[in-house]
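Q: Sequence in, structure out?
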Amino acid sequence: MPREKELTKCIPKIYKRNAENIMLFSWVNAQRQVVKTITLEQAIWNFLKFTDTDWDMESAMSTYSRLQKEYYEDCKS
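A: Exactly. Output:
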């Protein structure tokens, strides 16, 4: 069986998430890379405004934090 590439190690858990979670994670990371001074709360607030979702700030922040933790743990191993 072929060995798994380093780049694809992060993919399995991220694909198990729903589209809204992936969009949140990608949106916030992209904003924080482009605008270096933006805070996590501002980036999440921009996402909530743009997508017009039912999420409250606490739920979105905990979802983002959980996804970030899983993503970076998967990438390290």
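Helices lie at 11-15, 19-34, 40-51, 57-76.
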